[in-house]
Amino acid sequence: MPGLQKEKFIVPIGPQHPALKEPAHFEFTVDGETVTSASVRFGYVHRGIEKGTENRNWAQAMYLLERICGICSHVHSTTFALGVEKLAKVPAPPRAQAIRQILLELERIHSHMLWVGVAAHEAGFETLFMYSWRDRETVMDILETFSGNRVNYSANVLGGVKYDLGPAQTDSIKRGLDYLEERLHYYMKIVNSDESFLRRTRGVGMMTTAQAEELGAIGPTARASNVARDLRVDSPYLLYEQFPVTIVLGSTGDLQTRFVVRIQELFESIRVIRELVNHIPGGDLTVRFPRRIPEGEVVMRTEAPRGGLFYFIKSGGGENPVRVKVRTPSLRNFMSVLVGSVGHQLADVPMILSGIDPCFSCNDRMIVVRREPGKETAS
Amino acid sequence: MTESLLAQGLSLIEGKFVSQTAPEPNRIDLMLEPAQLLECTKALSAARWGYLSAITGLDHGAESGKLEALYHFCNKAAVITLRVTMPRDNPVVPSVCAIIPSATLFERELMEMFGVVCEGTPDPQRLFLPDEWPDGTYPLRKDYIVPAPPAAPEE
């Protein structure tokens, strides 16, 4: 029937879907098994955080922003704290900056290892999934020695940090990282040599350098396509100037390269954590910080595990922020999924999606509870 | 490095904006008329000067009657922000999606949260807000008051 060929067939995926652990709604238009276009709706875990900061004071806003994401929580509060400290012209002491950086790199390790597990699971490689999540517990335990929490460590205060790096932390970091390094070598071997794994990842979700630049991809997703974007190198914050990381680039831009780039980055993280622990500056953990922040606007950008995190903070001179805009790396990278899935088999879409390490909580920052007479709905 | 990047970016769009400020050493803010937005965006993206990192909406409140959209272009540490001011009762900017297709998600967010109309945007659907959200209610505007959370159920 020739008339039928012009009709679109749309496959809706989500918001509840067995292959996606977090909610989003996708509509893939397909021709047979091949995807011809894609669109997306988010908002299923939107909590009103940007709006919420506007009627809280600066310190409360920081703890609220830390809860944007359970995986990369420390990077949110650090970015906000750095921005506010810039506005107030009261920088945190060097020792506090070093501790923030150690925590950021530990967080990167746990985030990337989580992703290795999730992506392996999507590829049907359950053993690697279980291995990487078991080994990830090592870094969770290290984080727990700082604050008692595995996630949302609340280590920051405006003008410093709460937790010091003592002998207990140093010891657990040193032992933990030795073990992790050995395991990472093993993962690197697997993702480069396991035949069934390579079949699911090599050449899948390709993004050329030109495409990555055009789509504005960031983070490991961009670096696997040979786009040198890493804010730790481009625009160093904290102590990244004294304790630099080397940018890790891949050339092919397929899923397999993203595995290699992420694992390679972890070796860099481990190296820089060790250096920081061995040469940590002395001094205070906090400085006195004003309650009112001088009027002004600041842009603060840091490298979260998934890519560049963007904060725009505006102060009107009062105790509350006037506006906090958060643009998380996942939102920037989602375009690469929408564009990258076109031309692929529908069955490859979950792999392409997990290739950017999407974080839905990061995207969705707003939810509003609506009250109607006799009826309350949270949507 | 950052200074030369900023100077290079500025030279691309010389004369296409109304005024400029430098709020931080690595940033330049350019105020423009809505009609100048496309020209500036075109010039920056044709020269591959960085990437559009985010679009921030700002509400200056009902008294001032102004909304502002900030287009942040980032190149390494340098940030050039194109700032477009619009009247609050008729906020219209041209869509930049024809030049930067990946801006569609940012524009959808700006439209639903601030009620800005991005003229010619390919997909005007909501991105974050639910279908049953009332039309004409823009949660990130200053006059939107967040309803009190529901009371805890009684024991």
In short:
Chain A is α+β, with helices and mostly antiparallel strands and 379 residues long.
User: How would you describe the shape of chain A?
Assistant: globular
The name of the CATH topology of chain A is Cytochrome-c3 Hydrogenase, chain B
| Number of separate strands of chain B | 7
CATH superfamily of the domain at 2-90 in chain B: NADH:ubiquinone oxidoreductase Nqo5 subunit
Low-confidence stretches of chain B: none
Rg of chain A, alpha carbons: 21 Å
CATH superfamily of chain A: Cytochrome-c3 Hydrogenase, chain B
Major sheet attributes of chain B:
5 strands, mixed
Would you tell me the overall average pLDDT of chain A? 86
SS summary, helix count of chain B = 3
Helix content of chain B: 10-25%
Largest interface by Cβ-Cβ < 8 Å: A-B, 45 and 43 residues
Number of strands of chain A: 10
The second-level CATH architecture of chain A is Orthogonal Bundle
Note the run of SSEs of chain A as H and E. EEEHHHHHEEHHHHHHEEEHHHEE
End-to-end separation of chain B: 63 Å
Q: How would you describe the overall organization of this protein?
A:
The complex is a heterodimer of chains A (379) and B (155). Chain A has one domain (49-332): Cytochrome-c3 Hydrogenase, chain B (Orthogonal Bundle), CATH 1.10.645.10. Chain A has 14 helices and ten strands. Chain A has helices spanning 49-54, 58-66, 73-88, 94-122, 126-147, 167-193, 195-201, 209-214, 219-223, 231-234, 255-278, 329-340, 349-355, 360-363; strands at residues 9-13, 25-31, 34-41, 156-157, 160-161, 296-304, 307-315, 321-327, 369-372, 375-378. Chain A is globular, with a radius of gyration of 21 Å. In chain A, 50% of the residues are buried. With 155 residues, chain B is an alpha/beta fold. Helices cover 21% and strands 28% of the residues of chain B. Chain B has helices at 2-12, 37-46, 104-114; strands at residues 19-21, 27-32, 51-59, 66-75, 78-87, 92-94, 117-119. In chain B, strands 1-2-5-4-3 form a five-stranded mixed sheet. A two-stranded parallel sheet of chain B has the order 6-7. Chain B is elongated, with a radius of gyration of 17 Å. Classes of the chains: A alpha+beta (379), B alpha/beta (155). At the A-B interface, strand 3, helix 1, strand 6, strand 7 and strand 8 of A face strand 3, strand 4 and helix 3 of B.
